[in-house]
Amino acid sequence: MRNLSLLQRFKCVDLSFPGSPQCFSIRSETGTVLVASELAITEFDPRTQEVHKEVSLTAEEYLPEDGSGVVVAIQDLPDQESVCVATGSGDVILYNLNTSQLECVGSVESGLTGMTWSPDQELVTLTTGQETIIMMTKDFEPITEVAINQDDFGEGKFITVGWGKKETQFHGSEGKQAHRSALPNQLAAPRITWRGDGQFFAVSTVCPQTGARKVRIWNRECVLQATSEVVNGLEQPLCWRPSGSLIASTQRHPNKHSVVFMEKNGLLHGDFNLPFGKEQVKVKELLWNSDSTVLAVWMEDLKPGENEHPNTYIQLWTVGNYHWYLKQSLHFGSEPLRALACVCWDPEKPLRLHLLTRGWVSYTYDWGWSTDRSHGTDYHDNANVAVIDGDKILLTTFRQCVIPPPMCAFELQLPVPVNLVTFRSQAQRTNELAALTADGHIYCLFFLNSWCWSFLRSDVPVDGFVISLCHSLGNGTVALQLDDGQIRKVHMGQSVSPLIITGTGFGFYVCFSAKIQAGMLTGVSLPQVASNISSFVVYDDFLLLTTHSHMCHCLNLSTLSIKGLQSALSSDAHQNDETVRKVERGSRIVSVVPQDTRLILQMPRGNLETIHHQALVLAQLRKWLDGLRFKDAFECMRKLRINLNLIYDHNPTVFLANIEMFLKQIDSINYINLFLTELKEEDTTTTMYPCPSRSASSSVSGKGGKKVDIICDALRSTMETLDPQKYCLCILTSHVRKTTPELELALQKVHELRGDSVSAEEALKYLLFLVNVNELYEHSLGTYDFDLVLMVAEKSQKDPKEYLPFLNMLKTLEPNYQRYTIDKHLKRYRKAIHHLSKCGEEHFTELLNLVKDQRLYSDALELYSLNSEQYKTLSVAYAEHLVEQQQAEQAGLLLWRCGENARALQAFVSCTSWRNALAVATHIPLPPEQLALLARDLAEKLLEARRHKQAALCLEQYAKDCEEAISALIQGAAWEEALRLIYLYNRQDIIETDLKSALLDAHSNQTSFLESQKALFIRHKNRLAVVQELKAKARLELFDEDGPDCADAELYSEASSVLTGSHLGSKYSRSNSRISSRSSKNRRKAEGKKHSLKEGSPFEDIALLNALTQIITIVDKMRVHSLLKALVLFQFDGAASSLQRDYGELLQLMETALPEIWTDNLQQGQTPLTGPNSTANSIMASFQQQRPAVPQQDTEALTAPKMRIAVKWKLSILK
């Protein structure tokens, strides 16, 4: 549904060359035109009118000076930097463009009627006056000569026509003196055309026996392949479509004039009629453009009036869906000098047409494909697309219907062919259009109603050639842009007048702004943004485009930049990317329906497809939801299968505030149920349909809680307020769709509808559609309503023998025991024990067994009073369970609370809860001897747990053994507490016997420990420096070999040792690779081997860092202060001073070594340092220091430990 729009036209009028033009050729390299006249060859630039070269053909007598000579063909040969010219007298002339020399490379005495080069310019075919074809190479070496008219259909033998005889052979320079035969009748002259790939050529000639014209197809070796069928009225024009599918010619019928097409086998294959009478025009030439999309037909009047010259026409035809459209009609009038002499398409630019008139006026037309669509953005615009087809405008209104071409909604008939169409840009009047016809008049067409149109014609034709036109916002005003740069305005019914804005540039376009109502020229040279675009359209805030990679992009212009556009076109689409979708190969955009979601695409074969691009759909949905148009949004989402959660997720607060409006707009029970059944906890605005301009915080839920529960509760509340009878099924759905389905409430509502059996029946049937019947049966049983249970059971597939005996048995039971039986059957054990507790003491044993089986002790205890016997029994059972679960202290508390003191004491003792045990023992009370024995047992357990102070307390206060208490404190290094008890109980003898010796032993042990830790710290520190140096060297060696971009560069880090491990200890890497990780034990074992301190292990540096961290932590937490005070008290100053000095020196050593071991390079991230301030050396260094992701325990080793610097442990009285 595209039209040909004229982009620009170049006109050269001041050309004054000798003779009259007979044929021309286009030099694709320079864009210049080579013209051959009966006197000379001229090369000129059609844009600048500059003459590059000119050489005479009469100076060396190739053509007569009287102007009677004829040039039958001219061809540019870029590879040879020459021009080949064939004359009617039989000469083949080569003109060298570098030396400007003419050379006759051959001559045929019978004369030449045509010359055609193959598309690859490797072969040249000549047609002679004796009806033969001569094929030669590009060096003009003859290959063969055959007769044009042959009796065989194809694959005929070569025919010898006397090659070598004087009248037919090439003579070289002798040809200049040869006899020049008369030219044959031009209408009977043969025509040659090559296929685009150069494998075949076709020749159209008149059969001398029958006088009928036939087309013969020859291959590249000049072997006849096929002969066309007999076609009455077949005419001379012949052109093979470059794509190779069809051969075009013309045929004159008794009642019409047609362009016909033939296949390679010579059979007819389609045609179309020319818009002229049977004897009105003659077709001089048919010309396909280089990409086979446009067929140019060059015609002139066959029978002009008296004292008149024939009119000349050029028509451009295109095909779509097997229909031929007349897109452009160019009329050149009847003036002799304006008559066309030469026409050809540009070989490089498919839509550039070159014309040359007999008066030496050159025209160059640049066409472009365009889709003429209306530009409205409101609901009044019908999404019109106008297709030019000769004197008709085929109009399709895509808002109402999608009609595949060549059909249409409206066919607007005009008196003359149309060349240009534009739609009005005024709001609410965008369905009106203006058309420029081939005679220069402008027609404005108005849409009266759904089936009627009217038009208004300008009185005065436009004086000049129109490049483009558009409607203004004023009534009846059309703006025109002429090829000379002028901008004119036309008031319908008045004359044409110039606009204030004028220009002299070519190729500019005029458009009206919707706000300022003035013309604007745009001639800015903009950079190319993308080169793979096949079509595009701007709609609202979106740029929609299709690419040659068969993708359709929909990009938001408000956030789009050039870099963003290039990035979007070059990158692959993500799964949830709404801006891009795949389309059929070769699809092009036709139109977008305003305020809708439809995008119309046309396929290469011409048919139409309607798609709903997700970006357009979501943008329109967001507009509807913002405008509270829930019905439009819902219907669109339902039709296009958009997740209905978007209605809520788009703006939860607004939705919850307008639920009543939502229900009234939807007004369909089925639609509301559909909405409820699609609800899920996912936020679709962040997962399925992310909005590029939407912030992450704007899609939060309207209230706290789960989304599905919030919506169900809000909708149910509103529906129950509006009309609970009408929305009965929706209310049931809201119960069922909650996160925890409220099936019992739903069944209860069904039960309440029993008065109306039809409604209850429908409601139950609907519930069975939503919920599994077995699940619903069990929940109905949980309501304890046997009538409801029978209703559900009857709707299920259950056999009555399965449920009736069970129901009958239940009916015979006492109500509480009945409910207990139902709850136990449904495995609702908490409710079961609740009902069973009401059945009396005779069922308590059954309750106790159920509590033990299901471990519902806490729930059961709540059912009985604290002083009841059942409560005590349950507490004992609970305590036994807690003891089994290794929670003896809690068991003791339960037993103590319910009066089981002996068993509580046993529980407290088993878990060493000494305070509770002694309290219970005192509460019993135990005799003093047994209490002392209990205290000694507890003290022994506390000593085993290294809880010396607590053991001393038990021995002192309950066992009454102060000596053992002091001994426990000395053993636990609680020097100050031991001294307190020594003087409290007047046992100073223990100072000499036990305390001083213990102090000296503690000093000796602390000193030895400090020395060993210091030696180990220094050894690990030195080894770590060696390991880091070795790894740095290994990294540099491999980095120099492979560079920073090698695949293993990221492994060469301070913390990893894959590379160094392979150099230092390959056996570890091999053994570690065989470690199985099938169990946690094996994983721990593998982790232990990984952090081995053995020299040469692959992760030795990590192991050393862990060991150093452990040493620092242990030394920093040593309790030296209390020992120093005790040593000073008993006058061991020397020992105290040495211990204080050694401990201080070790702490100082560690504090100093911290920044040396944990350097900044070890702790920095693994991202390479790049940026504008980086240098080559810094980037190389950052690559060398990269680290891969390391485990958590390894990350902790890379962080320096913190020492307790603020702790005061020194004694100032010591030196």
TrEMBL record:
Predominant localisation class: cytoplasm
Pathway: tRNA modification; 5-methoxycarbonylmethyl-2-thiouridine-tRNA biosynthesis
GO biological process: tRNA wobble base 5-methoxycarbonylmethyl-2-thiouridinylation
Cellular component, GO annotation: cytosol; elongator holoenzyme complex; nucleus
GO MF entries: tRNA binding
The entry's keywords: Cytoplasm, Nucleus, tRNA processing
Domain ELP1 alpha-solenoid: 615-810
Occurrences of domain ELP1 N-terminal second beta-propeller (ranges): 387-444, 528-590
Domain spans labelled ELP1 TPR: 817-980
All residue ranges annotated as the ELP1 first N-terminal beta-propeller domain in the record: 1-348
Name of one Pfam family that matches: A-sol_ELP1
Listed Gene3D superfamilies: YVTN repeat-like/Quinoprotein amine dehydrogenase
Listed SUPFAM superfamilies: DPP6 N-terminal domain-like (SSF82171)
Subcellular location: Cytoplasm; Nucleus
The protein's name: Elongator complex protein 1
Organism from which the protein derives: Cyprinus carpio
